[in-house]
Amino acid sequence: MTVDFTMQFPAGFLWGTATAAHQVEGGNTNNNWHAWEQAGGGRIFQNQTHGRACDWWGGRYAEDFDRAAALHHNAHRFSIEWSRVEPQEGRFDDRALAFYADLIAALRQRGLEPMVTLHHFTDPLWLAGQGGWTNRETPARFARFVRMAVEALGADVRLWCTINEPMVYAAQSYLLGRFPPGKRNVRAMFAVAENMLRGHALAYHAIKSIQPEAEVGFAKHQISLKTPFPHALHHGALRLVRWVFNRAFVVALTTGELRLPLRRVQVPEARDTLDWIGLNYYYRFQVSFSPLYPQRVFLNQTQPRDGIRGPGEVGEIWPEGLFEQIKWLCKTTGKPLYVTENGVPDPDDALRRLHMVRSLRSVWKAIMHNYPVRGYFYWTLVDNFEWSEGYDPRFHFGLYACDPQTQRRTARPSAALYGEICAANALGSDAIRRAIPPDEFDALFPAPPVQTRVTLPPRGG
Ligand code: BGC
User: Fold this and answer.
1) With 0-12 CB in 10 A as exposed, 13-18 as middle and 19+ as buried, what is 212?
2) Is 172 in the pocket of ligand 1 (CB under 6 A)?
3) Is the pLDDT of residue 315 over 90?
4) What is the pLDDT of residues 384-426, one digit of tens each?
5) What is the pLDDT of residue 199?
6) Residue 167 host element (H or E)
């Protein structure tokens, strides 16, 4: 018996991919990441630098948008590089703004709705020199840049995303030391989270004052968590990580109060500053606690049981976690949601189609539960500069492979699957059958048991 179905998505659903300026543009020499790359010292895979990346600054965005349009995407999320628009404090570069206006026009010409991110991990050098996001003046400086960007580009942009993954930025830069400035200081991490919250709030109000009809949100990275046996021993650690990393920032946007360990701050201007919430979702981690180290919490990437095994250290990829994250974010904020990033590092395209099917099945399930999911942006269109992983071949996330030396793009098989899904606005059994092995199909979509013998009640009984 075969199982046939169509998981239809709502009319007007946005389908696309997401990118970030520093990862695709190339030649970004005026931000803190450039300086970090130049310093070497093994901070980035093989001491690589972003170089030409995907050469979007050289104009190759146009051919990549052709690819997206040919795959029936109707939207694209990208970011504006602050250090290009404001190369020195208070001096704005009209040429940079014109570049982004052209890029947005190129999207519109191809029928792609732009979603514009205003901060995606990089800071202008002049800002980094003032302490970056640890500085209490930074939120106001960010809002000034945002105002310039919205004045220049707002006529063609409806969807604005203020900040990408504030807690990832804060943790990677100030707790784990993997992003510039490479600090390990929990207090600094909390100060950065607070300032990013203020920055988001000021940016929200700035955008709405210029363009009241704009729809403004931000992209929140959520991680799935689990505990080892005995669960009760580790549950406190799970709650702590879940609160700090997944929840505190989002709750602050509804209450106007940011509650972090040993820190409770009022940020009333942050209340009700969301028109939508963005979800970036990738991994599941195991949280544990050891009585031998009562001050510590352990976070590990474990190998999967029901998830997908990622490359190298990546550990567990668990697409089904999307459902819980969508549910929590929609319930907490009461707002519509875009999946602003979701993808898998997979150079050989061995996992990607299964991952895509499982992920979209979870998103569809959330829609069936009446959670207002409005769109899905796959991470990413073409392989690009993957931060500390540089161009490490294990961390290629693209629907298209891209060789940064030759700039040659090659479609991976999953690009066609995604194109088919976008064209149909649906995930259908025929497309899935063609994309994943039969045993995976049967495991995901088991045929209902066939009743072979029917026992009727005795007559007149
Ligand atoms: C970031 C992207 C990054 C992706 C894959 C996300 O957390 O926003 O910039 O490339 O993860 O690691």
Assistant:
1) exposed
2) no
3) no
4) 999 999 999 999 999 999 999 999 999 999 999 999 999 999 9
5) 98
6) helix 166-174
Q: How far is the CA of 23 from the centre of ligand 1 (A)?
A: 9
Cβ-proximal residues to 439 (8 Å cutoff; 6+ apart), any chain: none
pLDDT 10s digits, 32-67: 999 999 999 999 999 999 999 999 999 999 999 999
Neighbours of 265 (CB within 10 A): 16
- Minimum-distance ligand 1 atom for the alpha carbon of 384: 10
**Ligand 1 centre from 291 Cα, in Å?**
34
Q: CB atoms < 10 A from the CB of 262, how many?
A: 7
Q: How far is it, in rounded angstroms, from Cα 400 to Cα 389?
A: 18
Please enumerate in sequence order all residues whose Cβ is within 8 A of that of 390, keeping only pairs 6 or more positions apart, or say none: 44, 45, 46, 48, 49, 50
Cβ(386) – ligand 1 distance below 6 Å: yes
Mean pLDDT of 242-270: 97
Write the DSSP symbol of residue 358.
H
- Is residue 122 packed enough to be buried (19+ CB in 10 Å), middle (13-18) or exposed (0-12)? buried
pLDDT value of position 226: 93
Ligand 1: residue of 387, 388, 394, 402 to mutate (most ligand atoms within 8 A of CB) is: 387
Parallel, antiparallel, or unpaired for β 298-300 and 316-317? unpaired
Distance, CA of 457 to CA of 461 (rounded, Å): 7
Task: Label the pairing between strands 14-18 and 373-378.
Answer: parallel
Note the Cα 150 to chain centre separation in Å.
22
Residue nearest to atom 3 of ligand 1 (CA): 386
Per-residue pLDDT tens over the stretch 161-206: 999 999 999 999 999 999 999 999 999 999 999 999 999 999 999 9
C-alpha separations of 403 from 54, 118, 213, 298, 385 in Å: 8, 27, 40, 37, 11
Q: Which two structure tokens, joined as six digits, stand for 370?
A: 């009446």
pLDDT, tens digit (0-9, with 9 covering 90-100), for 101-151: 999 999 999 999 999 999 999 999 999 999 999 999 999 999 999 999 999
Measured in angstroms, how far is the CA atom of residue 397 from the centroid of ligand 1?
9
Structure tokens at 455: 């026992």
pTM value is: 0.96
Task: For residue 328, count CB atoms less than 10 angstroms from its CB and return exposed for 0-12, middle for 13-18, buried for 19 or more.
Answer: middle
